[in-house]
Write a structure and sequence with these properties.
Blueprint: H1 2-17, H2 19-24, E1 33-38, E2 41-46, H3 47-63
Antiparallel strand pairs: 1-2
């Protein structure tokens, strides 16, 4: 369970860092991707985008 929580945490960190680039290709603006302001900072939770990217990665893994 802790391994999955760490994996999700690191995935969210990666999405946060690549947010500008991913938004240019359409990810991050899907329904289910949450963006909110808290204490003057913008936070971004890409729930739908991460599910979509994991499905793509699983499909690629099956092909290889």
């Amino acid at each position: 369970m802790i391994r999955w929580l760490l994996l999700i945490f690191f995935a969210l960190l990666i999405f946060q860092g690549l947010h500008r680039w991913l938004e240019k290709i359409g990810l991050g603006r899907l329904p289910g991707d949450f963006r909110f302001k808290l204490f003057g900072r913008d936070f971004f939770l890409p729930v739908t985008s991460s599910v979509l990217l994991s499905l793509v990665a699983a499909g690629l893994a099956r092909l290889i």
